[in-house]
Write a structure and sequence with these properties.
Two copies of one chain form a homodimer.
Chain A: H1 2-14, E1 17-18, H2 28-34, E2 40-42, H3 63-76, E3 85-90, H4 91-105, E4 112-116, H5 123-127, E5 136-141, E6 151-156, E7 178-183, E8 202-206, H6 207-211, E9 218-223, H7 226-240, H8 245-261, H9 269-290, E10 294-295, E11 302-304, E12 309-311, E13 317-322, H10 328-334, E14 337-338, E15 340-341, E16 351-355, H11 360-380
Parallel strand pairs in A: 1-14, 4-5, 4-6, 6-7, 7-8
Antiparallel strand pairs in A: 3-9, 8-9, 10-13, 11-12, 13-16, 15-16
């Protein structure tokens, strides 16, 4: 066993590590320890129909998932669920596109401008351009956006890639042509203090980033307006005729256990996640501090209503910068670390996005390589 | 128990029955009898990563699903799998859009025309129009299509809605601007004789219509050309960052059992499905024959290599016509039967598509209502 472990480390120490995607495998260990309580068993004759609940506008949403979502938000206190429609999606990726589609189809004129304040989640660019829709148009950075006509602002808070707390930046008082989609993928207690119960028109959440179950492809939207929710549902029907029932049932079960652990001292998932993230960030800040060439954003502390104390932020991605005039993504690649280029996020070559959610051994190799890069750069200077 | 059954029937006899969608719940009984062999158990720590196989171009495809797909096609003999890329999708719905997107993005000029011979699957219209893409344009009926430039023909065989065996109809010799997507959702032995091993460039299949597991949202494409497969994968990455792992794992397990039953006398799923479909079609043809107002297509018999004998076709949908000058979809709706309007399929008011895959009790209520419609029509005449 020890021998195998060593072999694994040797092989890892040679290989390229991929921190470009935010693959949240960091949490596997927790779910392994939780044991059978999250195990789902599905028989051959289960979940065969397209329909989950013919009386729900979102007829492909499993009722027990809807219930689990509401209970979890209630327990965490991060979002209002009452008087809202829940729309389930194949990840929040599909839901973001469904929301842009819905808002655009309800707008008076098209194409509707879509913007996000830089640095933004690079995938927004691809999501709003790849089908070359005539309904909406990616207009890039929301800072300084001043085009007339209807627009959609994507607000991610805490922000991907840089972890900052965000609000809308397009400021048009009394303008009812502006719509906002709030992406709250990371508004959970292990990443950031829960400072308020969010209460916006369209709020997106994803299973992936809460518990680490990215492979399930489950996201949900909490939507105030009935017409918007209806259009989102229509989009998902044409796009994929609903969402995997197996994933929904499993998500429901895990979210229920997650909610139960909220009250537990020993097993609280958010406590576990918070400690892990804090630990990783402290290590990373340690390496960066030792270096003369790297930088990281600083986050203010805030009172977290979930934990009942003042805490810092420990985002799912590190927005790593360099003080050198260098192409950081290439620099890291030379050191066998794949990251996401700042330019793809509407920023510059001196920044990259690095996932903080890899498995522990991969994260440690990353720290090691980063520390070595610093040394090499120092010699270069 | 008997009382409850009766109550259920009473309630069904009053309610609207929905045969608009092809919800394939007819097969539930078979899978109930198969018992534990298809049961999957998924632990909390399983299937967490986005990635299934980083060495596969389609990195979100579970290797055991790929294996099960190849083995099933080999056992049934309905499609060639060698020297092909397998792309998994959230149903063949997502894959059809991925294929149209891929072929369009590789075309010299855009928008690429998309056509299908009428009567066609009505959802093709929605799939190719809802995002108002600039890359492709729905041009409707392939019969008589003569627009210059690149085009994609969607060929569904057996056809949805009318069950006929189809080949391409746009005839442009030596024209390399024409591409074809073959939708083989219904090319399985319970619906139609397997007369050849299909060997086309892009072939789509869906789990839903083989075994009835529509809720899993799993489809796959067999793709010859590497660039096309790559573009399809790219589409699915942006559209939903892959496909539910839970659904894939479960599909793999069920397809493996399905393949095993192919060799069994007592449990052969296709034998079971074939008998059920044949029985339903005979009953339906009986009702239609008794009527003066309805019509159904006739299908030629053919030698089925899977069953090793000459057999008829028993499609998943009935393409019901009327000899009267009437709006058949409304006529049926008045009798509490929801069906899909022929006009939505590029046909006329005198035709509707009716699902043959409902639960047995629903199917019987449909037959009853159809028989009564005949009587009412006769009195009217």
């Amino acid at each position: 066993m020890v021998k195998l472990e060593n072999m694994k480390n040797i092989s890892l120490s040679d290989s390229v590590i991929n921190l470009d995607h935010g693959d949240p495998t960091a949490y596997e260990e927790y779910w392994r320890k939780i044991g059978d309580r999250c195990t789902v068993t599905i028989r051959g004759c289960d979940l065969m129909s397209y329909f989950s609940d013919v009386n729900n506008m979102c007829w492909f949403l499993e009722p027990e998932l809807a219930e689990a979502i509401k209970e979890l938000h209630d327990a965490v206190g991060n979002a209002a669920t009452e008087d809202r429609y829940i729309v389930v999606g194949t990840g929040s990726t599909q839901l973001c596109q469904a929301a842009v589609h819905a808002l655009s189809s309800l707008a008076g004129t098209q194409p509707v401008s879509v913007v996000a304040a830089a640095p933004y989640y690079s995938t927004y660019v691809e999501e709003t351009t790849y089908v070359r829709s005539g309904m909406y148009k990616w207009e890039g950075d929301a800072w300084g956006f001043d085009k007339k006509g209807p627009y959609i602002e994507l607000v991610t808070s805490p922000n991907n890639p840089d972890g900052t707390i965000r609000e809308t930046v397009v400021n048009r008082p009394d303008d009812d042509e502006g719509k906002v989609i709030h992406d709250f993928a990371y508004y959970w207690p292990h990443y950031t203090p829960i400072t308020r119960r969010q209460d916006h028109d369209i709020m997106l959440f994803t299973f992936s980033k809460i518990t680490g179950h990215a492979g399930s492809r489950i996201g949900w939207a909490l939507v105030k307006d009935k017409e918007v929710a209806k259009k989102m549902v229509e989009y998902i029907i044409v796009n994929s005729i609903g969402v995997s029932k197996e994933s929904q049932i499993r998500t429901a079960k895990i979210l229920k256990v997650l909610k139960e652990t909220c009250k537990s001292e020993a097993e609280n998932f958010f406590e576990y996640g918070h400690e892990m993230m804090k630990n990783r960030w402290e290590k990373l800040r340690g390496v960066v501090k030792e270096s003369d060439v790297f930088s990281l954003p600083k986050y203010p502390e805030a009172y977290c209503y979930f934990f009942g104390k003042t805490l810092g932020s420990y985002p799912a991605f590190a927005w790593l910068g360099t003080k050198e005039e260098t192409d950081l993504v290439n620099e890291l690649r030379r050191h066998k670390v794949m990251s996401r280029a700042g330019e793809r996020c509407g920023s510059d070559k001196k920044h990259v996005r690095v996932s903080m959610l890899s498995r522990e051994d991969v994260f440690n190799v990353f720290l090691e390589r980063l520390a070595n890069m610093k040394l090499i750069k120092s010699i270069d200077l």
